[in-house]
Design goal:
membrane, mainly alpha, Anti-sigma-W factor RsiW, single chain, transmembrane helix
Length: 127
């Protein structure tokens, strides 16, 4: 299909899916009247769509979902993940406790000079 732009292909799909407006249908059918390649392509799409619509949908047993879920392997998450998912607030506190304790420990290493500025003690500092 040399002349077909994405515009006409998308219009074909919209018409076949019954989502096109009357104006879009008119534009497509005017183009199909003048373009044999697009007309053949549209008819092929139309036939494919009809075949798909005629397919029967299988009826699943009522307990299908339950039987599939029972066949899945057991959950292998470790105890920490299980505990964390059951106690999200405590998990957040535990995760924040380590960085905050490092901040507190680091602040104890600071001293203040006469001007009130905080100075960090560094080993080998000559001041």
């Amino acid at each position: 299909m040399n002349c077909v732009s994405k515009k006409y292909v998308s219009l074909m799909n919209k018409v076949l899916d019954q989502e096109a407006t009357e104006q879009e249908k008119q534009v497509l059918f005017e183009h199909l009247a003048t373009c044999a390649e697009c007309r053949v392509h549209f008819n092929e799409l139309k036939e494919s769509t009809e075949l798909l619509r005629r397919l029967t949908h299988p009826q699943l047993p009522a307990a299908f979902t339950e039987s599939v879920l029972n066949q899945l392997p057991p959950d292998k998450r470790n105890a920490i993940h299980k505990w964390g998912s059951r106690h999200p607030v405590l998990t957040t506190v535990a995760i924040c406790a380590l960085p905050m304790s490092l901040v507190v420990i680091g602040s104890r290493r600071q001293t203040r000079n006469r001007n009130g500025y905080a100075l960090v003690k560094v080993s080998g500092d000559q001041t």
